[in-house]
Design brief:
The protein is an alpha+beta fold. The protein has 7 helices and 7 strands; from the N terminus they run αααβαααβαβββββ.
């Protein structure tokens, strides 16, 4: 059976299905350690300030730091319709769904479409089509499935923030230091999700001069429009 699936007319489509199962296996393995190829889950409501240890934010209450000086995520976003994206990438379905899901849809459509076409050809004409010839309609099937998948995501999440709003949308949100230790003059990498559940990575320094925030610590992210940079308050490990 394996030799048949790896025969020249079927090999490209069998390999595509194999890659799909490889992606699924990798996603399962990553999920067991808290990771994901797709990204973090959505946080549509955003962080609730009531869940933040206000002891960590006592400086705001004491008036040491003016909280209002830091921008909050705007209630009304500048949005663009994902479905209205133009260009070749939009035709391929890219940009409407996470890339891993798009790739999985292409591999599924290409692999199953190609195998199905070869089975039908064998039944009708007694032999399978050349792999190169069968790959053309199989690729069309893969792109069609990816576009359909993107359409589903576009209906579920019909809007996305514009890139001009990214910095503001990440203000007053929880994040996690993922690389390095954040110090003044030595920013670290921070992972934070916007209100749409999209994961962003930014580099930021602590809000206070003497703070040192190591990798793995949860932080409260603020955006200071005066210096056009993000600042961090350590919420602990």
């Amino acid at each position: 059976m394996l030799a048949f699936l790896l025969s020249e007319p079927l090999a490209p489509f069998t390999i595509a299905i194999g890659l799909l199962f490889g992606l699924l296996a990798l996603e399962i393995c990553l999920s067991l350690i808290g990771g994901s190829l797709i990204g973090d889950g959505p946080d549509l409501d955003g962080p609730d300030l009531g869940d933040v240890d206000m002891g960590d934010l006592a400086a705001f209450e004491a008036g040491e730091i003016e909280f209002d000086a830091f921008e909050a995520a705007p209630e009304v976003d500048i949005e663009t319709d994902v479905a209205g994206t133009a260009g070749p990438l939009a035709w391929l379905g890219l940009g409407q769904t996470p890339f891993v899901i798009w790739l999985g849809a292409v591999l599924t459509g290409f692999g199953l479409g190609g195998l199905g076409l070869q089975v039908i050809a064998t039944e009708l004409i007694g032999t399978a089509l050349p792999a190169g010839l069968a790959a053309v309609p199989a690729f069309v099937a893969g792109i069609g499935l990816a576009r359909a998948t993107g359409g589903v995501f576009a209906r579920l999440i019909p809007k996305t923030e514009s890139s001009a709003q990214t910095a503001r949308m990440l203000s007053r949100r929880r994040g996690t230091v993922t690389q390095g230790t954040a110090r003044r003059g030595g920013p670290a990498e921070v992972r934070v999700a916007d209100r749409h559940g999209n994961t962003h990575y930014l580099r930021a320094e602590p809000l206070r001069d003497g703070d040192s925030i190591p990798r793995g610590h949860e932080v409260f992210v603020l955006y200071d429009p005066r210096v056009r940079a993000h600042r961090l308050i350590d919420l602990g490990a």
